[in-house]
Structure to design on (450 residues):
């Protein structure tokens, strides 16, 4: 190893991040070259100076506040019922009643949305408006089609926002938000005033105090619900726990913003 | 059917597995926000998010890095929402051209900055504070919190090569700033 190579390896060397062979070569060079040896010593001393900085602890109240907040969060469904506007809750309950399976009918809304999910996934650019900025996507929906769509941040679950599109369904413009977890796509649809909400079939599921209808259509899992006049549907190959959690976040965020 | 797990177990597990890292999260948040109240607020929000996603955390994997990722994302969301585009732009990843920007950041003149100076003491604090976000977060995680390159890369969602270049540049900037402060105080002569 010469001085040039040593300089290039200086930081990983001092940090103990070099492989065994490279570390040995760097060690040998530092021992034989006074200039590089001094450089390494100076880096080490600087590192020690940083490590000697006082290490502040979190205030004890912070821990108890977090635990209290988590416990409160577990009771979220109850709290949410109190926040929900009663009229909306009633409308939701009625709409949900007609969400139950009705037997073999013409293409259902969810079937239609799964078809769109599959078709968009094959496009080179599935999102008409590509952006990872949640608020920007919300503004775009509003400007393009007057849609008040909520675009939640799922990044903590490794689900990345890809962008948005206006989807045509039921002779109206629906909001379509596209996310990605690795190579798995997650589509969220909002159909503002669906004519075919009654055609949504599937299994009723209750999650964190809210009702959903889940169904598997053409190899995709779907989680749907009605909010006021609008039908919401999540379509993905992701598992149900993940989809329900995403759905719950979306509903909660809509409620919180309305409140 | 889907198994949701017991809620109480989840609480206890979260406390045992995640909250043992609270000090690290708090110190890192403090280095991001420069302010204790904001740091507490940030950590609280991040922990709640972590709690809600906890069923997706894979036991045995690196919980500290996972939590720090959430703290950082929450912080980035906040500065974005606050419309502090300059900071957000820097945080987005592209290493900014240094020089003038770093110089002006190193000599804060607005009263808020002056007030913050009284919250944290010492030249290292001051120099760290002036470091642009991409370098600061790398230096804080690696040098102050002792994360490995791999862990830092995970938290910052960037390749290890980027971590290395940010670290070496960040450390250089930090040393230069400390040298300047030392000269100001008269500790060191012009070298």
């Amino acid at each position: 190893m010469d001085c040039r190579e040593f300089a290039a390896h200086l930081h990983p060397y001092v940090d103990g991040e070099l492989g065994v062979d490279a570390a040995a070569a760097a060690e040998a060079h530092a021992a034989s070259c006074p200039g590089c040896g001094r450089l390494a010593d100076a880096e080490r001393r600087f590192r020690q100076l940083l490590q000697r900085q006082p290490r502040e602890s979190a205030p004890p109240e912070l821990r108890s506040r977090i635990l209290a907040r988590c416990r409160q969060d577990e009771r979220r469904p109850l709290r949410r019922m109190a926040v929900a506007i009663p009229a909306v809750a009633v409308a939701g309950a009625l709409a949900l009643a007609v969400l139950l399976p009705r037997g073999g009918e013409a293409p259902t809304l969810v079937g239609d949305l799964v078809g769109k999910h599959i078709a968009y996934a094959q496009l080179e650019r599935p999102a008409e408006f590509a952006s990872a900025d949640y608020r920007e996507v919300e503004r775009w929906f509003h400007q393009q089609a007057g849609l008040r769509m909520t675009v939640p941040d799922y990044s903590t679950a490794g689900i990345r926002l890809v962008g948005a599109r206006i989807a045509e369904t039921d002779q109206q413009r629906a909001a379509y938000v596209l996310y990605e977890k690795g190579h798995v796509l997650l589509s969220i649809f909002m159909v503002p005033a669906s004519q075919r909400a009654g055609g949504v079939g599937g299994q009723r599921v209750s999650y964190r105090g809210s009702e959903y209808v889940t169904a598997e259509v053409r190899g995709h899992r779907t989680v749907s619900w009605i909010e006021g006049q609008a039908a919401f549907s999540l379509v993905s190959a992701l598992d149900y726990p993940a989809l329900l959690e995403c759905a719950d976040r979306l509903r909660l965020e809509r409620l919180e913003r309305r409140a | 059917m889907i198994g949701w797990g017991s809620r109480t177990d989840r609480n206890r597990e979260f406390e045992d597995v995640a909250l043992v890292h609270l000090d690290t999260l708090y110190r890192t948040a403090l280095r991001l926000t420069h302010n204790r109240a904001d740091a507490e607020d940030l950590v609280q929000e991040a922990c709640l998010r972590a709690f809600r996603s906890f069923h997706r955390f894979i036991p045995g994997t690196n919980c500290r890095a996972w939590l720090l990722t959430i703290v950082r994302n929450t912080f980035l969301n906040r500065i974005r929402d606050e419309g502090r585009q300059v900071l957000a732009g820097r945080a987005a990843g592209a290493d900014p051209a240094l020089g003038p920007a770093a110089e002006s950041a190193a000599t804060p003149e607005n009263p808020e900055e002056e007030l913050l100076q009284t919250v944290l003491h010492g030249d290292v604090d001051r120099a760290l504070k002036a470091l642009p976000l991409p370098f600061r977060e790398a230096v804080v995680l690696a040098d102050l919190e002792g994360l490995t390159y791999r862990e830092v890369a995970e938290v910052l969602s960037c390749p290890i090569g980027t971590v290395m270049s940010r670290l070496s540049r960040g450390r250089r900037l930090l040393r230069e700033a400390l040298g300047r402060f030392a000269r100001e105080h008269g500790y060191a002569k012009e070298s």
